[in-house]
Amino acid sequence: MSQLIQRTELKTFYYTPVHCPFCGVRVMGADPQDETRITACPHTLFIAHDTAFEYRSARLDKNLEFDGLSEREIEAKWHEDEHGIDGLTDKVSLADAIKVAAYAPAPSAYGSYYGFAPVE
Ligand SMILES: [Zn+2]
User: Fold this and answer.
1) What does the pLDDT look like over 11-43, one tens digit per residue?
2) Where in the chain are the domains?
3) What is the whole-number distance in angstroms between the Cα of residue 3 and the centre of ligand 1?
4) How far apart are CA 33 and CA 56, in angstroms?
């Protein structure tokens, strides 16, 4: 039985820039010209927020059985999950995978999700 991704939640310091725990790359906001730009390192599995995936790695697609699905079918998958993208990305079962979930406080309740796993 493979272990599910380990979760870390940021609720107070939700705006803290997230860096890869395995190589230290800052995955979002590293470019001062464009803070929305994503810098995925080899360990990055996904970068997402409540309404979309910003980045999905091939390892994620394989692990969540997205291979061969259209973008619409993938979107349908996380719409089916009670907790949306947050819930769906909790089902990742790659070895030693780590997820950082950053939740902006209510009333916005906006979440950002970052997944990482070591590479062989
Ligand atoms: Zn990395």
Assistant:
1) 999 988 999 999 999 998 777 787 778 889 999
2) 6-116
3) 20
4) 23
